[in-house]
UniProtKB/TrEMBL annotation, chain A:
It is an enzyme of class 1 (oxidoreductase). GO terms for molecular function: L-aspartate oxidase activity; steroid dehydrogenase activity, acting on the CH-CH group of donors. InterPro entries: FAD-dep_OxRdtase_2_FAD-bd (IPR003953), FAD/NAD-bd_sf (IPR036188), Fum_R/Succ_DH_flav-like_C_sf (IPR037099), Fum_Rdtase/Succ_DH_flav-like_C (IPR015939), NadB (IPR005288), Succ_DH/fumarate_Rdtase_cat_sf (IPR027477). The keyword Magnesium does not apply. It comes from Salipaludibacillus aurantiacus. SUPFAM superfamilies: FAD/NAD(P)-binding domain (SSF51905), Succinate dehydrogenase/fumarate reductase flavoprotein C-terminal domain (SSF46977), Succinate dehydrogenase/fumarate reductase flavoprotein, catalytic domain (SSF56425). The lineage of its organism: Bacteria, Bacillati, Bacillota, Bacilli, Bacillales. This is L-aspartate oxidase. Pathway: Cofactor biosynthesis; NAD(+) biosynthesis; iminoaspartate from L-aspartate (oxidase route): step 1/1. Residues 441-532 form the Fumarate reductase/succinate dehydrogenase flavoprotein-like C-terminal domain.
UniProtKB/TrEMBL annotation, chain B:
CDD domains: fer2 (cd00207). This is Fumarate reductase iron-sulfur subunit. PROSITE patterns: 2FE2S_FER_1, 2FE2S_FER_2. GO terms for molecular function: 2 iron, 2 sulfur cluster binding; electron transfer activity. InterPro entries: 2Fe-2S_ferredoxin-like_sf (IPR036010), 2Fe-2S_ferredoxin-type (IPR001041), 2Fe2S_fd_BS (IPR006058), Beta-grasp_dom_sf (IPR012675), SDH/FRD_Iron-Sulfur (IPR050573), Succ_DH/fum_Rdtase_N (IPR025192). It comes from Salipaludibacillus aurantiacus.
Length: 554, 99
């Protein structure tokens, strides 16, 4: 097995991982960034359209204080004020730095930076680059900067992380599988930063890329880290449900639309008579899922979106989305589209402090894999800002910790299980079992039924039981083909991470016996008086979930 | 559901033929996924966003470079949907290029 040494290991190359890499490498430490896909092209960041900001372009009346208040308000009591304050305080500096490195913000007709309004922000403060391909623009700016630091900064595509390695309770590196060479390697590092993004692929309909299988949460659990508020999964309300090839594609123009159930009733009149379709994501998702849950959805479990009264506006304001619909046979001029909520983002994640440090020494976490900033509801366009600010902080903090440590610790890695599974002499090889692809599909349907938009006590119990059954299936699973980059070996590894992360979400959801933020349990529709966090850890192959009072409460 | 004949030009000048269950709303990527599920679990292909943004799913489709997640699966003039890796650079295997 190959052994690779570095000072800082960064797992994941979205906005968060790349931000961390640049700031860590500037300090002179050796940095290695790995990604299971193509570096800088495989995460949710690629699809992001706008970023919330403060800067010279800010409107009169905007300030750190109002931005902070908006985040707090949106978080339904669960947002960590320490993190929110840092975000509001440092976003200007981070964006200005990106601009200095070459990012060009989009401008309006007056050639001034275009500032957009976003639901939930009390004032317009979103900006964009590359005509709305903001995420891509940010990634390319970081990659360019990374190339200028190449003496200290290396990237490695197509290598998937199996486990974090620990030694005397400290994270000391990672066990990885090189998809090209089809071999296991050990990476020794003084500090590790997890930046593996989200988990939308735990659900059958998602806006997330295929890589968003929740690996980071599972890796963190395996190393002893605590996961906070994992039940807080945000669903994007209006996404296409059919045809299958674009299922999960987000529709931004839903506030122009009329939504109907299968009986032709415009149901938002029953839920939000004042605002109708122009309401917040959580309310819309809940209404749509309730209609389908009560048997008023289509065969595909969807509702209908109608924009025939305003197609011209849709076409001129959202040309890319309009074309995509038409291309795939959804002619919005004459037809209604089948739409439903798609798994979009997780507010919960690994518990961190202001520098991205987890509770496990040597392990830092940033971006969507970290929890706490957004609480029970993420404000639109705050995910990218989070990646910039906390990516930079985690990169700097991990690098200075690495600089203080003389030696790498050598983990007593027990890699035998993975070796057995991923090498020729594994006893499971050749044994017939369910394919890794089918296991993934099973996990998705369990999560959809038991831990989707509308949850119940019974549904969650069943989900827990079914995930146990899937665990058994996994143990007997068909061994994957080990040819270079075989899709099957990727599914095989990801399905293991998916089950562990899915279980954490279900445990957390069972322990929140109220409906708060994105978590709605119909058996507990109200709020409990004292807010609390759910905290999940994993010890000796068992999940432990506790309620943690908010800071300052006792 | 009908079928589509698919030809994949793989490494070492090896060509594989597949007869794949097909409906007209399938993209090239959907067809490859069908091959993965029902014909060849070891097939190698790369993709991420499924919405035409990341460009990692780019390959030769009926002789022209295209995004497999955006192109609808249609047979070429010879009656086959022909897929091959992009000509430039090192091919890891099947349809996957080194990045
Ligand atoms: C369609 C869409 C639109 C969005 N629009 C917006 C928007 O307009 N504004 C906004 O602020 N937010 C938006 N979001 C949310 C935002 O894009 C994400 O939350 C954010 O980009 C996450 O960045 P990240 O760096 O944490 O993770 P990602 O960008 O997801 O990157 C994670 C990386 O880690 C890699 N990885 C994962 N597991 C492993 C492993 N085991 N081993 C090695 N590598 C691994 C992945 O391949 C991936 O490249 C959107 C999300 C989506 C899906
Ligand atoms: S999968 Fe991203 S462009 Fe096709």
């Amino acid at each position: 097995m190959d052994i690779i040494n570095t000072d800082v290991l960064i797992i994941g190359s979205g906005a968060a991982g790349l931000s961390a890499s640049v700031y860590a490498a500037r300090s002179g430490q050796k940095v290695l960034v790995i990604d299971k896909g193509a570096v800088g092209k495989s995460g949710s960041t690629v699809g992001a359209v706008q970023i919330a900001s403060l800067g010279e372009w800010s409107l009169n009346g905007d300030s750190e204080e109002t931005y902070f208040k908006d985040i707090e308000e949106s978080g339904r009591g669960l947002s960590d004020p320490v993190l929110a304050k840092i975000l509001a305080g440092e976003i200007t500096e981070r964006i200005n730095e990106l601009i200095a490195w070459g990012l060009k913000l989009d401008v309006d007709e007056k050639k001034e930076v275009a500032v957009f309004s976003t639901a939930g922000h009390s004032i317009s403060r979103s900006v964009s680059a590359r005509k709305g391909k903001t995420g891509l623009g940010i990634l390319q700016t970081f990659l360019k900067k990374a190339r200028s630091l190449k003496d200290n900064l290396n990237t490695w595509s197509d290598v998937i992380t199996l486990e974090l390695l620990t030694s005397s309770e400290r994270v000391t590196g990672a066990l990885v599988f090189d998809l090209t060479e089809t071999k296991l390697s050990i990476i020794h590092a003084k500090t590790v930063i997890l930046a593996t993004g989200g988990m939308g692929q735990l659900y059958p309909v998602t806006s997330n890329p295929v890589q968003a299988t929740g690996d980071g949460f599972s890796l963190g659990l395996g190393a002893g880290a605590a996961l906070k508020d994992m039940e807080q999964v945000q669903f994007y309300p209006v996404s296409l449900k059919a045809p299958q090839s674009v299922a999960g594609f987000c529709i931004s123009f839903y506030h122009y639309s009329k939504l109907y159930n299968k009986d032709g009733h415009r149901f938002m009149a029953d839920y939000e008579p004042e605002t109708l379709e122009n309401t917040t994501r959580d309310k819309l998702s809940l209404a749509m899922a309730s209609e389908v849950g009560q048997g008023r959805g289509t065969e595909n479990g969807a509702v209908f979106m109608d924009v025939t009264h305003t197609t011209d506006r849709v076409k001129s304001d959202f040309p890319h989305e309009y074309e995509m619909c038409v291309d795939r046979g959804v002619d919005l001029r004459s037809n209604r589209a089948e739409v439903g909520p798609a798994a979009h983002f997780i507010m919960g994640g690994i518990q961190i402090d202001g520098n991205g440090a987890s509770s496990v020494p040597g392990l830092y976490v940033t971006g969507e894999t970290a929890g706490g900033l957004h609480g029970g509801n993420r404000l639109g366009n705050n995910a990218l800002s989070e990646c910039l600010v906390f990516g930079a902080r985690a990169g700097q903090a991990a690098a200075s910790e690495s600089a203080e440590r003389e030696n790498r610790l050598f983990p007593s890695a027990d890699v035998s299980e993975w070796l057995q599974k991923l090498t020729g002499d594994s006893p499971v090889r050749g044994k017939k079992g369910v394919s890794p692809y089918d296991i993934k599909r099973k996990i998705q349907s369990v999560m959809d039924e038991g831990a989707g938009v509308v949850r119940s006590d019974k549904g969650l119990h069943q989900a827990r039981k079914k995930l146990e059954e899937i665990d058994v299936l996994l143990k007997e699973a068909k061994a994957p083909s080990l040819k270079p980059y075989s899709r099957e070996v990727i599914d095989f590894i990801e399905s293991r991470h998916m089950v562990r992360t899915a279980k954490a979400i279900v445990e957390a959801a069972m322990h929140r016996t109220e409906s708060r933020g994105a978590h709605y349990n119909k058996d507990h529709p109200g709020l409990e008086t004292k807010p609390y966090h759910t905290v999940v850890t994993y010890q000796d192959e068992r999940f432990i979930c506790l309620r943690q009072p908010l800071k300052g409460d006792r | 559901m009908s079928v589509i004949q698919v030809k994949i030009e793989r490494d070492h000048y090896e060509t594989s033929f597949f007869e794949v269950a097909y409906s007209t709303d399938m993209t090239v990527l959907n067809i490859i996924e069908e091959i993965y599920r029902h014909h060849d679990p070891a097939i190698a292909y790369r993709f991420s966003c499924r919405t035409g943004l990341c460009a990692t799913c780019m390959m030769m489709i009926n002789g022209k470079p295209g995004l497999s997640c955006m192109a609808m699966g249609k047979p070429g003039e010879d009656g086959y949907l022909t897929l091959a890796p992009l000509p430039k650079g090192h091919t890891i295997r099947d349809l996957v290029k080194e990045v």
